[in-house]
Amino acid sequence: MTASQRSTYTTVAEALRRRFGSVFQAKVYRERLKGRTRQQGESLPQLAQAVESLVRHAYPVAPEEMVTVLSRDAFVDTLEEQQVQIYVKQAHPADVQQALARAMEFEAFLYTTAAVTPYHRFAAQKLPRCHLPAHHTQV
Fold it and tell me: Which of 14, 44, 50, 109 has a 20 to 30 Å separation from 37 between CA atoms?
């Protein structure tokens, strides 16, 4: 900015808004949202909060009802396990908090019935039936 441009509040404020304002960076946040996945060790509540924050930045002028729907859908999309996604979708959650509750419920079911840690659940699901404990086999 030139010295004359820096002398007016409006010009400086607009330059700062362009540089730091989320309205002008919405496209960047939308791309981050598209590529967002659950990080190793990230809890579901942390993931839900991060997704909701990304949605608010990606769509800064969207009405609250739209933010609610976009946050819910984006959160469900970040759930990498298809079984969890289906369980959450079948519950027809109204918002991200309800989707989070269903996802946490399903993960709790997985952990208690599979008797494995969260880090080993994928390996246990991929084992042939004969390698799983007897209470996990289906007739």
Answer: 109
